Structure prediction request, 400 residues.
Amino acid sequence: MTANAAQTTAGSTDELRAVLVLAGTTGGIGAHVRSLAAGLSAHGVDVTVCGPAETDKLFGFSGAGARFHAVEITSTPGPRTDAAAVGELRRAFARASLVHAHGLRAALLSDLALRTARTQEIPLVVTSHAANLATGMERRLLRMMERRVARGADLVLGASSDLVARARDLGATDARLGPVVAPPLPPAVADREQTRRQLLSEKGRRGAAREAAAREAAGKEAGDRPIVLAIGRLTPQKNFQLLLDAASGWRAGEDHPLLVIAGVGAEEAALRARIKAERLPAKLLGYREDVAELLAAADVVVISSRWEARPLVAQEALRAGVPVVATAVGGLPELVGDAAVLVPPGDATALAAAVSSLLADPARRAELAAAGPLQAETWPTEADTVAQVLSVYDELISER
Prediction:
């Protein structure tokens, strides 16, 4: 979609009005939607983002050229909350040329809103961001929801190849790869060693707030120990319990690494209790906005997840030249190529050994640090992603 991007349905000259929908998020989905909102708006698209009010505060959709329509899309179904959300979505869709939902809950409610409003002439695009990792009855219920979304959408974009294949298996009439791209980080501190020491130091030249954050992150006992960094929601999918299993083997010797985990989530209390009870060399940092500084301070970034598509932390770490150890799941192998160390999922011994081996091998770390940015050059850019989405929108609207 180029100069004619403003055209909507056949014979219409109105500008393209896209509504992007998401549920509550603190991570990759929100960053991706903000990137799309900014890119689409820059191309003259009238963009509305629908989601919980806190997502606008966190990601600033309103500051990305989009208007924001608050819709409380909760993570779990509920008759009252879902009915209210569907009603708000129907109002938001009244002027829409196209709806683009991100994630299962947002997609399910968007499909319901379009059907009950009898506005099925409006195309529905769904981006699938995550695999179904539930078990038992919950897994069967989620699969039913996934099937309905896959069959109801005009197009499913999978964030990784396995999600595209799954959408097709579930009955999607059209499913394609639509990679989620991490926005570029602000320039990291040039001297990574200085930044690492600042994070560890009580007297780092970063002001009182940064000093307090540094003490929380590392504490006096950290010294000059290596820093192993993990970033993500504290949920079962990220499998930080496995990472703590690995960290339990790092306590021997004065130079054992310190594990720092940035993120919030339902497992925070359990993780914190375990760290205290087992005296593990680990710290929970909570929610952090200084990702660039944390990456500059890290010796190794670890991703212990049960599944991932194209995790933003992996993209950010490789771009920043930080060595990565990750589980070989989902879209991670195709994302990192040979620029990271991959280990079997669920294997704490292999994870611990891979991290220890890297920390003991400066030459290998330097090799991976150089390989990361080169691998990143093979990924689509934000501009590429926006161009793909615009092309998809144009294709679907022209068919109506």
About this structure: Residues 207 and 213 are 10 Å apart (CA to CA). Residues 136-152 form the longest helix (17 residues).
